[in-house]
Structures are given as structure tokens and as C-alpha cells.
Design a protein that fits this description.
Layout (H helix, E strand, L loop, with lengths): L1 E3 L5 E5 L6 E3 L3 E8 L8 E3 L5 H9 L5 E4 L2 E14 L3 E8 L4 H12 L4 E13 L5 E14 L16 H22 L1
Parallel strand pairs: 5-10, 6-10
Antiparallel strand pairs: 1-9, 2-9, 3-4, 4-8, 6-7, 7-8, 9-10
């Protein structure tokens, strides 16, 4: 059963399997949403959910906004590319370091303190499945924010400059440090 929704703006936080990359602290690309993956709120975005919204925005020469923590008074950059592919909602853009919050965001991302993306949208069509999840089949996308707390906690954001070996070495170092702390407690 499909439901039409006319309610207000919703947010979905998404931290994604090293799919957000940052170059020089300002260029960002990655996935703001993954199709078929259930988030902590029990929602699953279906493939094609953004198509109508993106086409309407393009026809009006509009853009998806890049915000800091969903705050409409704090745009921090521009999304140069927003599109659906087989995996999800791909975004590519630039953090503007001429903006104070942009400089802050770039520094926090580079340090690993901020690692999430979140979409701001309005649900147009959804349905419940037999597991009680809400299947989102059409969304009106308004913005993609850089956020602290993503809805998909099992995923990670990676830096474009990191090789898989660098990531593995960092994870091993963290594991050794955790083991050292455990031994020090005993």
C-alpha cells in the first residue's frame, strides 16, 4: 500500500563505507544515501526515489544546498553534482573555506571528527513492508548536510588520499592501542 505524504522536511543521516572523500580539505564526493539499506529509523530508500525531484530541480535551474548540520542559515559549500546511480545518491562538491563554518567543517572532516552526510527531504510516496520498515519510493530532496551523527553507524567516511593500506594500518594501530589500555587495567 503506497502512502502519499505532505508533511514537512525530514532528515536522514548517512555515514558511508569510506565513500565520502575529501581532497585538499575542500573537495568532497561520495554517497549521501544508499539504496536498499535500512537505517536506524527503519526507513529504506528505494532506487529511483530522487529521480523526479532531481529532474524538477534541474528544469528550474535549482540546486541541492550544502548545509552544516541541517542549519539553513549555515550553507558551507556547493554541490556541483548530485545524481542517482545504481548504488545511491552520489554527491560531489566543494566546501567554501572563505566561509567560517566551511573552514571549520574542512578541519573537522580532515581530523576525522565529522564523518557523516545527511539528507534533508520531504517524503512524497512511501509504503510499509511486511517487516514494518518504511520503503521510501519518492522523495523531494532539499539539501545534503555534513553532520556529526549519521543514521548508518556501521559505515565510515574515508579521505580520498587514504589508500586501503593506510586505513588498515590505522585500524590496526587503534586495535593495538585498545589492547594496550585493556592490559594496563588488569
Amino acid at each position: 500500500m503506497q502512502e502519499k505524504h505532505m508533511n514537512g522536511l525530514e532528515h536522514k543521516f548517512c555515514q558511508l563505507d569510506a565513500t565520502l572523500s575529501v581532497t585538499d580539505g575542500t573537495l568532497i564526493e561520495g554517497y549521501a544515501s544508499l539504496f536498499g539499506k535500512c537505517d536506524q529509523g527503519g526507513d529504506v530508500v528505494e532506487a529511483g526515489a530522487y529521480a523526479r525531484s532531481l529532474a524538477a530541480m534541474k528544469a528550474k535551474a535549482g540546486t541541492v544546498k550544502m548545509l552544516w548540520q541541517h542549519d539553513p542559515t549555515q550553507p558551507i559549500g556547493v554541490w556541483d553534482e548530485v545524481r542517482e546511480d545504481a548504488k545511491g545518491l552520489y554527491v560531489k562538491g566543494r566546501i567554501l573555506t572563505d566561509v567560517a563554518k566551511g573552514r571549520e567543517a574542512a578541519a573537522l572532516i580532515e581530523a576525522g571528527a565529522i564523518d557523516g552526510l545527511s539528507i534533508g527531504y520531504r517524503t512524497v510516496m512511501s509504503a510499509k513492508d511486511n517487516k514494518g520498515r518504511r520503503l521510501l519510493s519518492e522523495l523531494e530532496l532539499w539539501e545534503v548536510s555534513l553532520v556529526t551523527f549519521p543514521m548508518l553507524p556501521d559505515a565510515r567516511v574515508g579521505s580520498k588520499g587514504d589508500s586501503p593500506e593506510d586505513t588498515t594500518l590505522r585500524e590496526l594501530a587503534a586495535a593495538f592501542e585498545d589492547a594496550r589500555r585493556q592490559l594496563a587495567r588488569t
